[in-house]
Design a protein that fits this description.
- By secondary structure, the protein is an alpha/beta fold.
- 36% of the residues lie in helices and 28% in strands.
- The protein is built from 11 helices and 15 strands.
- Helix 2 (75-84) packs across helix 9 (294-306) and helix 9 (294-306) packs antiparallel against helix 10.
């Protein structure tokens, strides 16, 4: 490995290829690994059409809709990616008492999610995001949702259902989109109960959630912007310091006592901070059409690899390849196992 500092190493191209080859040869280990995903879920609706004129009522484009498409979103997309890569996804989430929840359930079933456990909260709608598209251009997005913390009785029901399945999974992903399902109390109880069952917990955090909510998690995976915010450090000073990401990583690990911090940095690759030091995994240049869902794909494939026996660096290389596949697509579309094989061979 090429040295960048006393405690930091950066994988070379040859080392990344070696890791990818190791992952490729061991992909069979991902099959049927059970992963429980807990968090905020939603339904993504796409309206596709062409813009041929401007509205006479206001200076806005008129989209003539030719196609309507529905996809799973938020934490449901994490479960979808676990399934598409050969794992056995189990989904535990809160939804409203509405048709959107039923549509979301049917999509998850169609996409191979092994078990879907929705706790119904009649005080909130199921999150739905409607995107109006013209070609590859995103015209507007309309959101139907209520961002509020779940009530105590809903939290208790989540915990009851969590206890029923925790012994049957390899690990737990807490997928936080800041909609209110993952309260501080619930996060801490889920982490504690998973550890009592000797299971590992990974968190995909949200920038608006205090980092203390995730204390005790075994792995936390923010993107770079989220990491800067979650660290609580002064952003203006950090932006001017090229080595500030190391300060950020240290601050998050210290505040959460997290042994494994994985920061995704877009075109700059991935940074992995552990007790033994920091490893940087560069990424190859890719054509980007849409980053929607890339983080979901990354956490799903990272954890699937890690809980299938890969070391964390190899798992990060695997996840990098999988995320590279989905940024070449429009919307929340999962990476399939065949696409992952092709990507690992191409790196």
């Amino acid at each position: 490995m090429a040295q960048t500092s006393a405690l930091t190493t950066t994988l070379t191209v040859a080392e990344i290829r070696q890791k990818n080859t190791q992952a490729l040869q061991s992909l069979h280990q991902l099959k049927n690994k059970a992963i429980l995903v807990v968090g905020d879920v939603g339904l993504d609706e796409y309206l596709w059409g062409e813009v041929r004129r401007i509205s006479p009522e206001a200076p806005v484009p008129v989209v003539e809709v030719s196609k309507q498409d529905y996809r799973v979103g938020l934490a449901a997309n994490v479960a979808q990616n676990v399934s598409s890569l050969g794992g056995a996804a189990m989904m535990l989430a809160v939804v409203g008492d509405d048709a959107t929840a039923q549509d979301l359930r049917q999509l998850l079933i169609a996409n191979g999610t092994r078990e879907i456990d929705f706790v119904v909260d009649k005080s909130r709608p199921t999150t739905r995001k409607v995107r109006v598209m013209s070609g590859q251009h995103h015209i507007v997005r309309v959101d139907y949702e209520a961002k509020k913390f779940v009530a105590g009785n809903t939290e208790a029901e989540i915990l009851r259902r969590f206890d029923k399945v925790i012994d049957s999974v390899e690990g737990v992903i807490l997928q936080d989109y800041g909609k209110g399902v993952l309260t501080e109390s619930l996060c801490q109880k889920l982490i504690a109960r998973a550890h009592q069952a000797k299971k590992t917990v990974a968190v995909d955090p949200h920038r608006t959630t205090p980092v203390a909510y995730y204390a005790g998690a075994d792995l936390i995976k923010p993107n770079r912007d989220e990491a800067f915010i979650l660290s609580g450090l002064q952003l203006d000073d950090l932006r001017q310091n090229p080595n500030s990401i190391y300060e950020v990583a240290s601050a998050i690990r210290k505040q959460t006592q997290c042994k494994n911090l994985v920061i995704t940095m877009g075109g700059d690759g991935v940074l992995i901070a552990q007790e033994s030091g920091i490893t940087r995994v560069p990424t190859s240049p890719r054509q980007v059409f849409d980053v929607t869902g890339a983080g979901d794909t990354f956490i799903a494939s990272l954890c699937l690899g890690w809980w299938s026996g890969f070391d964390l660096v190899t798992s990060a290389c695997l996840a990098n390849a999988a995320a590279g596949v989905v940024i070449g697509k429009i919307g929340s579309v999962p990476c399939t196992i065949d696409e992952l094989k092709e990507a690992l061979q191409a790196e």
